[in-house]
Amino acid sequence: METREGPDGRPRCGWCLSTPDYLAYHDTEWGFPVADDRRLFEKLCLEGFQSGLSWRTILTKRENFRAAFAGFDFDRVAEFGPADVERLLGDAGIVRHRGKIEATINNARRARDLVREKGSLAAHVWSFEPPPPEGPWRPVAQTAESVALSKDLRKRGWSFVGPTTVYAFMQAMGLVNDHHDGCALRAEVERARAAFPRPGQPARGNL
């Protein structure tokens, strides 16, 4: 993934310039750190739905997913039952895949359990934040930390959380800064990460 010039003349990660939806997502969301449990749960679920599909497919349906899954409030989704599964299978605005729908409901229950144990989903997932990389940026599909978080979640009963899916989640939620070295957003994301108080961890000095 090389950089390409964006519409404002600034270089961006090449993947984001294929559609305006990607550009807006790249510039305002991707890589910026997130501590909100609902947003973290949403992203884990949507990454699961993306399996075998493009992110653009999911991104264009994101508002429909939010409406269908109670805004990804996992306490509410955890109470979904068989009638909700059938309702969701009939919803043309989302990806109608029984396994992924049932996994989302299951994962909501597991998220609720995890929050009871750890205090927040954010505190748990951020405990798997990788150390700063050494050397220049290079693309990877997974890391030791995404493998570890994947194993941890699967041990807790989560589904559709393989290490590649989890790494995509970590990229998007700011646990890593995977903007290309030449991308204009890389420094902005790094500043946001430096100022970000890690959930459940002591305050850090300037990075």
Automatic annotation (TrEMBL):
Molecular function GO terms recorded: DNA-3-methyladenine glycosylase activity; metal ion binding
Tree of life domain: Bacteria
- Zinc: is it a keyword of this entry? yes
SUPFAM superfamilies recorded for this chain? DNA-glycosylase (SSF48150)
List each coiled-coil range: none
GO biological process annotations for this chain's record? base-excision repair
List of residues binding Zn(2+) = C13, H26, H179, C183
Q: Name one Pfam family in it.
A: Adenine_glyco
UniProt key word Transport: no
**Keywords for this entry?**
Metal-binding, Zinc
Q: Could you identify this protein by its name?
A: DNA-3-methyladenine glycosylase I
* Source species taxonomy: Bacteria, Pseudomonadati, Pseudomonadota, Alphaproteobacteria, Rhodobacterales
